[in-house]
Give the backbone structure.
Amino acid sequence: MDAIDTRGKAVIFYGAGHEAQFEISKYRKIGVEPVCLCDKDTEKWGRSFWGVECIPLEAAVKKYPDFAMVITPRFPLRFRIMEELLNSKTVTKDQLLNYEPYIKMKSCLSLHSILDANAAKVFAICCGQIESSRRPQIPFDGNLVENIQKIEQYRQEILENLNSPNPKDNFCACDNCRWATVDYWPVDTRIRTLKYDFGGRCQFNCTYCFSPARHNMVEPEWSKQARLPELTACLKQIDALHPEAVIEYAAGEICVAPNQEEIYGVLEHYDSVIITNAGQYSPGLAELIAMGRVRAMLVSLDAGTAETFQIVKGGAGNFNQVKANLAKYIALGALVDLKYIFVKGVNDKIEDVEGFVALAKELGVNRISISKDHRNGVVSEEAHIFSLMKYMISCAHKNGIAAILASGFFTDDEIKLLNSVSL
Ligand code: SF4
Ligand code: SF4
């Protein structure tokens, strides 16, 4: 992000939700310190988040009459808030540091901003909320430039059709998708989240991994034709990548990628989320963390004891080494989300849940994330696993650790039930 001249104004950050953490750290990097946070949620008033006090908006504008503002939630909520504040004349466009042109139209977050280079050997513009065979996507046939042009062209065609007064019937799955809504979306439809999971090799062998080709350090041949440096170069060539795009790297294990220096060279220019098994310490990754380029690291540990860890990881990996590596990354400032994928008969013991939460506390992770076994969408119907999930949330809360449910794997009812877990 480029430097911003706030001309001595007090900068108020609006929205004290999860996204605020990223926005605050992004602006701090360029020397902008929030004077306060504002939020509609009265429960947050008087509390501090990431070192910033949250107060009502009315009080903030009174206290800091010469203010500028950053709206922290991601779009479309970001633009809904902007619209409300602009209409009520609480702010002017000039005061909004992250203002950009937006428009009311039908779209969804994926359609508007995501490209998923997926391990299924496809380029998808759908976040995966719908069944994979119906997603708007095109197969990768080895011709990277052509495929990228095609998928970006497809994105524009879908948007046009969704917003046409006479849309074509059966154009694609977006037609009647519940995620496509009329809302405020940016005029700029360049990619803001590039999910990169195109093959890649891995030294682990997790029981739940659905991409066995990665195991034992095997990188699929096809994925070598579209590694991250080539893909980003291609996207830049057609100006499809937003300069503030976030790259989510999940292709096998980054720390054993043969071209990791090149990958780190790309990631120096973007914020990233790194999905890693932390089985190997990488000085290149450590450097990116120290530069403040890594927004978060997602690590599936799935165990609370060294014995269970060995089983989950298919005999690979060293629990204590992973712990030591994570401690080093966290000491450099990494925000780690520690994940637990419940696998029936493998890591469903009380001591694993307790050991996992104790480890999360010892390391000082950002939060823990709970998931079902990816290959088995009905696992939570196992009462035993479901009650362990509840127990994990309760243990996390008791230890002051935030616990979230991995998105896309739980039904609305399950989310309601798990989120209502008390101490
Ligand atoms: S199918 Fe639905 S979720 Fe997927 S891109 Fe289209 S509107 Fe979005
Ligand atoms: S660490 Fe990830 S890529 Fe490697 S085997 Fe496990 S799930 Fe698969």
Q: What stands out?
A: The chain has a mean pLDDT of 91. DSSP finds 13 helices and 17 strands in the chain. The pocket of iron/sulfur cluster (ligand 1) is lined by residues 108, 110-111, 125-127, 129-130, 135-136, 173-174, 177, 179-180 (CB under 6 Å). The longest strand covers residues 241-249.
